[in-house]
Amino acid sequence: MTKDELLDAAWPDVAVGDGVLKACIAEIRKLLDDNASPPDYIETVHRRGYKFVATVSTDERPEAEPGAISNASDLRTVNQTSLDTIDSKAERIPNASGSGVRPKGKSDSRSLLLAGAAVLLTGLAASFLMPSPMPRLTGSTQITHDGIELCCLTTEGSRIYFNRLSSLDQDTIAEVSLTGGLVLEIPTTLQNSRIMDISRDRNQLLVGAFTDAAETGSLWTIDLPAGSTRRVGNFTTKGNFYATWSPDGKKLVLSKGSELWISNADSSDASRIATVNGIPGYIAFSPDGNRLRFTLSNLDRHTFELWEVRLDGSDLHALLPGWQATPHECCGIWTHDGRYYLFRTNSSPDDFGEIYAIREPHGLFHKKLTPIQLTFGPTAFSIGAMAPNDRKLLVAGLDQRGQLVRYDSASRQFVPFLAGIPATEVAFSRDRSRIAYVNIADSTLWTSRTDGTERIQLTFAPDHAGLPQWSPDGTQITYVSARLGRQWKAMVISAQGGTGEALVQ
Q1: Which among 340, 383, 374 has a CA at the least distance from the CA of 358?
Q2: Mind listing the pLDDT tens digit for each residue in 322-379?
Q3: Is 7 helix (H, G, I), strand (E, B) or coil?
Q4: What average pLDDT does this structure show over 375-391?
């Protein structure tokens, strides 16, 4: 049968390339335990198609009554029965070469084989032609309202556990009901600790803690709901690290510097998985426990990129190569059923942005991963965790609002300054006649007179400005320029506008 015959029989109304046909033929050979060279059943005829080469004999059973197969449901049932029959009899009906299946049929076996091939090819390609629908967001509910920055969310199904970033050295672990309510802090002796995972029985948190000025990191578990802590083995490391449990809870994967390690759950018997060019973090196991995805940070260029590797260190590769000119994807998680992978990305050097989803490839067809955007602002998000039923996604939301105020000593109150413009990081010139400030909305640098007149915009996107300072004579302003894909730079610019120049080349 030629390739065109098979394609027309299986997909008469769909444009399908030769690659799909080849993949289906390979799967049929796998089901029959057949080899391409030398074949027992299916022979490839170069540049033409495929030939069935097993012995064909005649079955003397009576023909089926007309109309025995009359609708699509019957056809699917027959298809499944046929596959089961082939699989169960493959070792018991030898052909002329001593192995394989002897097909049964009338002398018009070509027509039967063509029809059977069409049914089988159609079934094998169903996942390619009819992929699962993409997830979509149907609504959102704000859980906390105290304005305190938070991160590292996880849940056991009814309560959310997270870090409250109240100050640089007093981070706390807290909890709140999934439906909202009172936020409670979990009492613990650990300081500066971050939640990294929750056990599969939902009774323990895995946290990383830094216990001294040298930033020596160690790994701990916190029992829920009591809050008692236990050290995980003798694991220690310098600088940032990340850890997560395997889906069965028997293994632990850790990042140390530029290395990924795997160990037993108590951190014993550790071995290195891979060494990467950057800092790995936010590690997530695939639901089947065979792969890892992680965020690879390049601190020199301020980029973040999603990577994947198998547990044995093989198949190390970027997940979305070339998707963005300057990658800033981070913090991905799988749904529990493994159908989707969600992550956050943005166009600024911030930790919040938009959420995207990827439909995971399945079956024979490993299609190119195409991210689909799920959120569109104005609130920016960082990803937390999926609820166990995969119907709720926990996120931290950032909605930046503010107004410039000054303290009035007479009334002892804060009152709007410059009409309460959305500004931050204000710096006054030495003679107090002008100010420089950063616009909250887009992190651009501006100057004006202290009465709000003569406003001048000094910087523009994609530069993000910060920490402005006036020169003593009031003619120039220094500031920090942050942009994705390059090192942050100290810049100087004329207070009247123009092009900024790097202070250090």
Answers
A1: 340
A2: 898 888 899 999 999 899 999 999 766 567 889 999 988 765 545 678 899 999 878 8
A3: helix
A4: 88
CATH of 405-502, one of 1.10.1740.10, 2.40.50.100, 2.120.10.30, 3.40.630.10: 2.120.10.30
Euclidean distance between the first and the last CA atom of the chain, given in angstroms as a whole number: 68
Domains 150-398 and 405-502 share a fold: yes
The structure tokens listed for 236 are: 């220690």
Report d(CA 439, CA 143) in Å as an integer: 28
Cα–Cα distance between 207 and 151 in angstroms, integer? 13
Distance CA(286)–CA(126), nearest Å, equals 24
Does 73 have pLDDT greater than 70?
no
Going by their DSSP bridges, the two strands 57-58 and 104-105 should be labelled as parallel
Domain ranges for the chain, please list them.
Answer: 3-129, 150-398, 405-502
Radius of gyration of the chain (CA): 31
Q: How far apart are CA 163 and CA 165, in angstroms?
A: 6
- Cα–Cα distance for residue pair 394/135, rounded to 1 Å: 15
Phi, psi of 4 (to 5 degrees): -65, -40
d(CA 446, CA 453): 12
Q: Which residues contact 213 (CB under 8 A, 6 or more apart)?
A: none
Q: Give the pair of three-digit tokens for residue 345.
A: 């990305």
Query: Can you tell me whether residue 389 is helix, strand or coil?
Result: coil
CATH level 2 (architecture), domain 150-398: 6 Propeller (2.120)
Can you point out the beta strands (E) in 182-334? 184-185, 193-198, 204-210, 216-223, 229-238, 241-245, 251-256, 259-264, 271-275, 279-285, 291-298, 303-310, 317-318, 329-334
Total count of residues recorded for the chain? 505
Question: In this predicted structure, which of 15-19, 122-126, 198-202 has the lowest mean pLDDT?
Answer: 122-126
- Give the contacts of 426 (CB within 8 A, at least 6 positions apart): 404, 435, 436, 437
Q: Say which residue the tokens 């979990």 belong to.
A: 186
- Residue among 334, 407, 320, 500 nearest 491 (CA): 500
Instruction: Match 């951190």 to its residue by tokens.
Output: 267
Query: Cα(484)–Cα(310) distance, rounded to whole angstroms?
Result: 29
Alpha helices in 71-193 (DSSP H): 72-89, 109-124, 126-129
pLDDT of amino acid 371: 92
**Angle between helical axes of 18-31 and 72-89 (0-180°, round to 10):** 50
Distance CA 24, CA 30 (A): 10
pLDDT for 88 equals 31
Beta pairing, strands 251-256 & 445-449:
unpaired
Q: Work out whether the CA dihedral 195, 198, 199, 203 comes out positive or negative.
A: positive
Query: Residue 123's Cα: distance from chain center in Å?
Result: 30
> Following DSSP, what letter does each residue of 200-225 receive, concatenated?
TTS-EEEEEEE-STT-EEEEEEEETT
